[in-house]
Amino acid sequence: MGETHQLGSLGSKLHAALASREARSIRRRLPEPTVLGKQSLIDFTSNDYLSLSTNPLLRARFLQKITEPERGQVLGSTGSRLLVNPVAHDRLERRMEAVFTRPGPRKHDDMPQVGLLFNSGFDANVAFYTCIPQSGDVVILDEYIHASVWDGVRASRVEQDCIKTFEHNSIESLCFVIDSLSNTVVERLQTGTSSLFIAVESLYSMDGTLSPLREINSLLSKLFPKNSYLIVDEAHATGIYGPPGRPGCGRVSQLGLDDCRVLARLHTFGKALAGSGAILLTTPLLTSYLINYARPLIYTTALAHPNVILVEAAFDLMVDGETDKLSTHLLALSSYLISLLQTRLNEAGIPPEIISLPPHFLPISTTLPSFDRVRVCLHSGNTREDVEALVSGAVEWARTWAGESKPKDSGRETTRSQQSRTRL
């Protein structure tokens, strides 16, 4: 309270806000410091999906690359890309274009895509949505879209009545939102004087849901074939999903949608690829516009050389197919967790009011109340034994709460149980 007193009214207001979060059990704190690979607890939390951060092969490849005599500069980045454009950064962008671009002949109306590095996926999303949608355009966002997209859209030139959301992954809701646009807006879209942007993530990490990219692409092609665009954030799919022969290139490539309808794709390096930074793949015109107007690019120091070299090393493993077996194991573990948990919950007679899987993971269509969520992140470094231990812990927890939530004389649940319903 000493600091609160010293800061006067500012301190009092900040303290009150934090106290409110504390009372509602939502106050954020940094977790205890850990050394990756050294913690005693099994990691079901981080975004290190392929466990590359502790992979000796990646470590060896990185150390080899960073000590190559011909490499030259390996420290710093010397400033903004607009001051100095290091060879390593330009080389990585060109390589990413080759990795993520569909090989073979392209359709006549396809626009080539080039890459532009950003310090993070957050910076890239803010840059794109702040700059690219223009006044009079329409932006429709999946309600679960990342906060960085919201920050960019809110700071854009798009009028508030032209910023809409649709229910998560619902084509029906998206159609309803488009149908509800004013006649004036629809006329602008039909005549091509305005553009429509649909913002989605290919894989949503909180619920493990996959965006219906094909269906959205078809809908836009039908309604506004000349001026509607799909913008896809591939942050949680990069390195894991991809078409045959191109592992890890994301769900856009996996579904064969890397054409002109997908105007921009974001691939980040800080999750499955154990690095940092991101690349935005879009058209040469949009890239040039971002270089001129994107403040998160213009006014920041570029990625340091060690970061770029680490991403190079991670992509070596991806292109060589080394990460393919890791992602296969990861997806198999995910399926095992879902089936095992559902089986054990059913065997134990745990009611869905206590603990459940999200509806899209259940074998039959069902509607459950929206409970508190526990996010579980599996990794290639996890084992089936790790998953079994997690499931056993979850079932034991559920048994405890199920016992405490049995009706009392009044026929009402205890307050403790009411506050402890959850879903995985």
From TrEMBL:
Domain called Aminotransferase class I/classII large: residue spans: 41-344
InterPro entries referenced in this protein's UniProt entry, alphabetically: Aminotransferase_I/II_large, AON_synthase_class-II, PyrdxlP-dep_Trfase, PyrdxlP-dep_Trfase_major, PyrdxlP-dep_Trfase_small
Lineage: Eukaryota, Fungi, Dikarya, Basidiomycota, Agaricomycotina
UniProt-recorded name of the protein: Pyridoxal phosphate-dependent transferase
GO molecular function, one term: pyridoxal phosphate binding
Region ranges (Disordered): 402-424
Family, per entry: Belongs to the class-II pyridoxal-phosphate-dependent aminotransferase family. BioF subfamily.
Pfam families to which the protein is assigned, alphabetical: Aminotran_1_2
Required co-factors: pyridoxal 5'-phosphate
GO biological process: biotin biosynthetic process
Keywords: Pyridoxal phosphate, Transferase
Species of origin: Rhodocollybia butyracea
Source organism superkingdom: Eukaryota
Amino acid composition bias (Basic and acidic residues), ranges on this chain: 405-415
Classification via Gene3D superfamilies: Aspartate Aminotransferase, domain 1 (3.90.1150.10), Type I PLP-dependent aspartate aminotransferase-like (Major domain) (3.40.640.10)
